[in-house]
Design a protein that fits this description.
Blueprint (H helix, E strand, L loop, with lengths): L2 H12 L3 H12 L23 H9 L3 H4 L3 H13 L6 H17 L8 H11 L4 H14 L6 H13 L11 H5 L3 H10 L3
Helix pairs in contact: 3-6, 5-7, 6-7, 6-8, 7-9
Length: 195
């Protein structure tokens, strides 16, 4: 199937049982395995088939669960199921998907998907190898995109920054990202999470 068709049916798979959901994801990516970390750009002349693992995570985040009649908990659980399978959805694949979503956020005026910061927090707990990238690239990029204008995402950003504020075994710390906050948001962060 073409990727566009799979994107249209993704909500249907999310609403199914865990077994069906996982089987559908495996089937989507079976012929594009060597491109698993890539989000392929599509043009009118070049339509892509299947869905890479990176694309699956990106499109799962943008599922309109309300329109599809899927409970929010199921939407969040579907993403967590993928993240829990770290032999398939490796740190590199998760990083690639988070990267794509954050770059799209910077380029457009659209808000981040509901589960985005939750995914980053889950990733912090699961993939310590990504702490330096999250601290040095992702959190500052989200500040640049003014994540603090979205109350829900801002709460997640602050929580994530607090989790990574102390220098961990990876040597990463979110202090530089925190210091990039505008003065008002920095005060808000420090009132919630004193040093």
């Amino acid at each position: 199937m073409k990727r566009a068709q799979l994107v249209q049916r993704l909500a249907e798979f999310v609403g199914a049982t865990d077994t069906i959901f996982k089987a559908a994801l495996a089937k989507m990516s079976e012929r594009v395995g060597r491109h698993s970390q890539v989000f392929r750009d599509e043009t009118e002349q070049n339509t892509v088939a299947g869905m890479t693992l990176c694309e699956q995570l990106v499109y799962l985040h943008s599922v309109d669960f309300n329109a599809a009649g899927i409970p929010q908990k199921r939407y969040l659980d579907a993403i967590r199921l993928c993240l829990d399978d770290d032999e398939v959805y490796t740190d590199r694949i998760v990083m690639s998907a988070l990267e794509r979503i954050s770059l799209d956020f910077l380029k457009s005026n659209e808000s981040l998907p509901l589960a985005y910061m939750r995914t980053i927090i889950l990733t912090c707990n699961k993939h310590e190898t990504l702490h330096p990238w999250i601290c040095q690239v992702l959190l500052p990029r989200l500040v640049e995109g003014k994540i603090y204008n979205d109350r829900r995402q801002w709460e997640g950003w602050m929580r994530c920054a607090k989790m990574l504020e102390r220098v961990g075994s990876s040597g990463a710390t979110s202090i530089d990202a925190i210091n990039k906050l505008p003065e008002e948001q920095l005060k808000l962060y420090r009132s919630k999470y004193p040093s």
